[in-house]
C-alpha cells in the first residue's frame, strides 16, 4: 500500500511570489510489470468539473489501495494549473491563458520525439521492448537536462516529469455548455471508444494532430513520430489510452454528478485490469462510434450580436438547418434585425456557447458529423 501527497514549489516571475503545486501518488511503484496512470484536471484553470471528479476518484483509489486492489500506480493532479487558479480579475476568473505570454495553457506542449531524435540515433534495434526503454530513457534524460525558467515552464516541467512514462494519460477539461465528449488520436481508437463508453461520452473525436500542441497528444505523438521516422525498427505504441475528456460545461460541478463520473472512470480502470475487486458498476451502453475531428463543425459567427438558440444540446440537425439567430446590437436595425445562422453539416449538437453575447470569430456550437469538412483546415481546435 502506498499513498503520498507531493508538494512542489513554483518560483514566481516577479519578486516575492511563490506557488504551491500539490498532487498524489497512489498504489505500487510503476515498473515494466506495473502500469502507470496519469490524470490531471483544470489545465484550463477556469474549467473545474475535473477537480470534483478527481476529488471523488481519490477517495475510491485510497480505499482500493487500503485493500491492496491497485494493480497500477495512479498519479493524480486534481489542480494541475495553480498558476491559472490565481488569474482573478475584477471578480472574474481568467484561467485559460498564461498572463505573461498570453499562451493558452493547453497549447504548444513539446513534440517529444524532436527533442530526443539525435539521442536515439543508431541505438534502436529489432527488440521492440528494448526500443521502448531506449526512447523512455532518452526522454528522461532530456527532462533532467531541461532548465525551466519562467513560472509556467516550471509548472509544465513538474507535469512532464510525472507523465512522460505513463501508460494511460487523461486530461480532464470541460466545454462551455456541453455533453460529455472525448478527444483522442486515431491510433488509440479502440481504447478511446471503451473509455467513451464508460464515461458516457456522446462523441469520440479523433485527430492525430489537431494543430495546437495540446497536452493529451504529446504522449502518443512520441511513439507515433518515433515509429514513422524509424520504419525499419519495431516501435510499438506504449501508451494504452490518452485523451482529453470534456466533462460537460463550466457550471457542471456537482457532488452527485461528478461522483458518478468518478465511479465511471474507476469502472474503466477496472475493465482495463488496473484495479481488482468487485466491479463498481455494470458496463454502460456502448458509446457512439468514434468520428474524425475534422468532421465536426465548429460553427462560428462573423459579427457581434446576441444569440437566440433554436436547437438544444443532443439534438440531431440537418445541414442547412437553423441553429441560432443573431440579434443586431448596432446600426439602423439594432435590436430588431435577426441574422440566421445555419448548420454547415448534419450531425449531433454536443456543445453551445454559455455566453449569449458573442463577437466575430466566436464558436457557438459543435456539430458532430460523419463527413470530413474541407473548411476545417489543419487547425482543428476552437481556442
Could you give a short account of the major beta sheet?
Answer: 9 strands, mixed
Can you tell me the CATH superfamily of the largest domain? Zn peptidases
Helix content: 25-40%
Given this structure, which CATH class of the largest domain is correct?
A: Alpha Beta
Shape assignment: globular
How would you describe this protein?
- The structure is a single chain.
- The mean pLDDT is 97.
- The strands form four sheets. Strands 1-2-4-3-7-11-9-10-12 form a nine-stranded mixed beta sheet, sandwiched between helices.
- The chain is α+β, with helices and mostly antiparallel strands and 383 residues long.
- The protein contains eight helices and 20 strands.
- The longest helix is centred in the first third of the chain and has 18 residues, at 49-66.
Task: Give a brief rundown of this model.
With 383 residues, the chain is α+β, with helices and mostly antiparallel strands.
Amino acid at each position: 500500500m502506498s499513498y503520498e501527497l507531493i508538494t512542489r514549489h513554483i518560483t514566481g516571475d516577479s519578486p516575492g511570489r511563490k506557488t504551491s503545486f500539490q498532487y498524489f501518488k497512489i498504489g505500487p511503484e510503476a515498473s515494466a510489470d506495473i502500469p502507470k496512470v496519469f490524470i490531471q484536471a483544470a489545465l484550463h484553470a477556469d474549467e473545474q468539473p475535473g477537480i470534483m471528479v478527481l476529488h471523488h476518484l481519490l477517495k475510491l483509489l485510497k480505499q482500493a489501495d487500503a485493500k491492496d486492489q491497485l494493480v497500477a500506480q495512479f498519479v493524480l493532479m486534481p489542480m494541475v494549473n495553480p498558476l491559472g487558479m490565481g488569474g482573478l480579475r475584477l471578480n472574474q476568473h481568467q484561467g485559460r491563458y498564461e498572463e505573461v505570454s498570453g499562451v493558452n495553457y493547453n497549447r504548444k506542449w513539446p513534440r517529444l520525439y524532436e527533442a530526443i531524435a539525435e539521442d536515439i540515433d543508431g541505438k534502436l534495434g529489432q527488440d521492440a521492448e528494448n526500443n521502448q526503454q531506449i526512447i523512455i530513457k532518452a526522454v528522461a534524460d532530456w527532462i533532467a537536462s531541461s532548465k525551466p525558467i519562467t513560472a509556467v515552464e516550471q509548472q509544465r516541467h513538474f507535469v512532464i516529469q510525472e507523465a512522460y512514462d505513463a501508460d494511460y494519460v487523461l486530461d480532464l477539461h470541460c466545454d462551455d455548455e456541453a455533453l460529455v465528449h472525448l478527444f483522442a488520436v486515431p491510433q488509440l481508437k479502440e481504447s478511446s471508444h471503451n473509455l467513451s463508453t464508460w464515461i458516457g461520452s456522446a462523441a469520440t473525436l479523433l485527430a492525430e494532430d489537431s494543430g495546437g500542441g495540446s497536452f493529451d497528444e504529446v504522449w502518443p505523438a512520441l511513439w507515433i513520430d518515433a515509429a514513422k521516422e524509424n520504419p525499419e525498427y519495431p516501435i510499438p505504441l506504449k501508451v494504452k489510452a490518452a485523451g482529453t475528456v470534456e466533462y460537460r460545461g463550466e457550471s457542471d460541478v456537482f457532488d452527485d454528478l461528478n461522483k458518478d463520473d468518478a465511479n465511471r472512470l474507476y469502472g474503466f480502470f477496472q475493465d482495463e485490469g488496473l484495479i481488482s475487486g468487485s466491479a463498481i458498476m455494470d458496463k454502460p451502453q456502448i458509446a457512439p462510434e468514434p468520428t474524425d475531428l475534422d468532421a465536426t463543425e465548429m460553427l462560428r459567427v462573423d459579427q457581434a450580436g446576441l444569440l437566440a438558440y433554436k436547437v438544444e444540446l443532443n439534438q440531431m440537425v440537418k445541414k442547412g438547418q437553423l441553429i441560432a439567430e443573431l440579434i443586431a446590437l448596432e446600426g439602423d436595425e439594432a435590436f430588431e434585425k435577426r441574422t440566421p445562422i445555419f448548420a454547415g453539416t448534419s450531425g449531433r449538437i454536443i456543445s453551445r456557447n454559455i455566453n449569449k453575447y458573442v463577437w466575430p470569430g466566436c464558436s457557438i456550437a459543435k456539430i458532430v458529423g460523419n463527413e470530413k469538412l474541407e473548411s476545417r483546415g489543419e487547425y482543428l481546435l476552437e481556442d
